[in-house]
Amino acid sequence: MGRMEAKMSRISTFALAGISALALTACGGPGGGSGSRDYITGVGSSTVYPFATAVAEKLVEGGGKSPVIESTGTGGGMNLFCSGVGAEHPDVENASRRIKASEYEMCQTNGVKEIVEIQVGIDGIAFAEASNGQSMKFTPEVVYKALASNPFGKPQAAKLWSDVDPSLPSLPILVYGPPTTSGTRDALAELILEAGCKTNADMKALKDSDKDLYKATCTEIREDGAYVDAGENDNLIVQKIAQNPKAVGVFGYSFLEENGDKLKGIPMSGVDPTYETISDFSYPGARPLYIYVKKAHLSAIEPLAGYVSEWANAWGPDGYLKSKGMVVSPENVRAKYADVVKNMTPLDPAELK
Length: 353
Description:
- It is a single chain.
- The chain has helices spanning 3-9, 49-61, 74-81, 101-109, 140-147, 161-164, 183-197, 201-209, 211-219, 234-242, 253-258, 275-279, 304-314, 331-343; strands at residues 12-15, 41-44, 68-71, 92-95, 115-130, 175-177, 227-229, 248-252, 263-265, 286-294.
- By secondary structure, it is α/β, with parallel strands linked by helices.
- The protein folds into 2 domains: 3-122 and 289-351, D-Maltodextrin-Binding Protein, domain 2; 124-286, 3-Layer(aba) Sandwich (D-Maltodextrin-Binding Protein, domain 2), CATH 3.40.190.
- Strands 1, 2, 3, 4, 5, 6, 7, 8, 9 and 10 form a 10-stranded mixed β-sheet that branches.
- Strand 2, helix 2 (49-61) and strand 3 form a beta-alpha-beta unit.
- The protein is globular and about 60 Å long.
- The two termini are 39 Å apart.
């Protein structure tokens, strides 16, 4: 497989019909945003992708044009989203983590000035195995020791799960997970690996004395084959671990829920990844999900406002996204972002880090 084919194989595209026939007018110059099109384009998270396509399908059922939504990973999508304003640039970024301050600055540099942030629900970074798997039990410290390039600043020597924790099976460590472009990978690093790393007092001190070394030590994943980058296709990870009872997978919770006949969740610190534990954030890997919208595109891309409004119709306890595996945000959070959708209130960058 050539490089281009390999790249395309990692990008899932949702395009219901007739995209090539849609007219796309030229942009009116750098940062002008005067171009228009009669369909929506979105990029970003593979975790948010199934929910974004469900909202897109609802839009089409109502007579709207076919949106084009690409699963590029949160990081890759941010690069595309922040590349500029105008009809040749995406309208929406789907994200399984919050936009970083550095990404916001990239947007500003490229003329993407007003960005609307909308939390659409909650998800969890689920660790899972085949239904006939080893019945593993993890903690953030176990995961960190197993997957870090240099756990606690020392060379990675663990080959078997039992090398990490004697209570675990004497089987080779084999974990299929997301790539560096993925928001799930970022959340894995922040919520699990870093939490495991900080169980060591020396690492806590290192955060104050050398932040760059701390980040590398606490979040960089080993590259010797124990962790397999499965690309931006969580369904591929599902297939890999369902076929191998000795392997572990890492992906968004919705993929675990949708494949409950083939997979079982691995407890983290004694807490199973379930709808309830993610909803109340008692599961260590729980995280919010977002979409980001270019306010400048609302006037030029006619169906965009309706698409964004449809999210607010879909994300409640009785909405159709719950049946797709979306964990519903608390009522006060939904009310806050429903108001953001109504007024298209831009994000305050002071909140970012």
